[in-house]
Design a protein that fits this description.
Number of helices: 7
Radius of gyration: 16 Å
Number of strands: 9
Oligomer: single chain
Mean pLDDT: 95
Length: about 210
């Protein structure tokens, strides 16, 4: 791992868009800043929050200079993610939702996959589905091989958005289609897998939160 920590070719931009998530946001941010793999920048877009989300982000930024903070009026998730991607200086893009939790080895395991599979453009993981209080409701798993993923994507979105990492070296013009306010991730995956290989790592590397808001 040491040989990758200062290698700009294996640096990750973790991107997060935040809108009024003050209750869950601290644990989500901490799950990234405490990763075992440390060669990353953390781009957080405050998308017009009206709660204490902005202050929470600013407090973490003061303590960790890997955090890049973008503060803006409300634009919506799709545009916010594209703004974060445009601000990225790295070869790999990882998603994190502001109410989800990544395992502390998530980035390490995904970047290690790309290190040995440089012709792959998209990598997701299994997930534990949790409730408001962090209790596990169920486990989300799926097919893992590229061929099977491509078949399944014809019928449903089997990639969990906050679990993915993308090889930007293969996709220098990477962006979400801003015509989509929802399902922007599904549309992007279907474009990517038409030309490139994909993988779902069969490990539970994120906790995906389901809650009323």
């Amino acid at each position: 791992m040491k040989n990758l920590l200062n290698d700009k070719n294996f640096k990750i931009s973790v991107i997060m868009s935040v809108f009024n998530d003050e209750y869950y946001l601290p644990k989500s941010i901490e799950s990234i800043v405490n990763q075992t793999y440390t060669n990353f920048e953390f781009i957080i877009v405050n998308d017009g929050s009206t709660d204490n989300s902005r202050s929470i982000i600013m407090n973490y930024k003061k303590k960790d200079d890997r955090i890049i903070f973008i503060d803006q009026e409300r634009k919506g998730l799709t545009k916010s993610l594209n703004i974060a991607i445009k601000a990225s200086n790295c070869s790999y893009i990882a998603r994190q939702d502001s109410d989800d939790i990544s395992s502390n080895s998530r980035l390490e395991q995904q970047i290690n996959f790309f290190r040995t599979n440089k012709d792959y453009a998209l990598c997701g993981t299994f997930a534990e589905i949790i409730d408001d209080n962090g209790e596990v409701l169920k486990k989300k798993r799926s097919v893992t091989s590229c061929n099977n993923i491509k078949k399944k994507l014809n019928f449903s979105n089997i990639f969990l958005h906050p679990s993915i990492m993308i090889n930007k070296t293969l996709l220098p013009e990477l962006q979400y289609d801003e015509r989509y306010k929802v399902s922007q991730d599904y549309e992007l995956w279907t474009r990517i897998v038409k030309k490139y290989n994909c993988k779902i790592i069969p490990k539970y590397l994120i906790k995906n939160r389901i809650h009323k808001s």
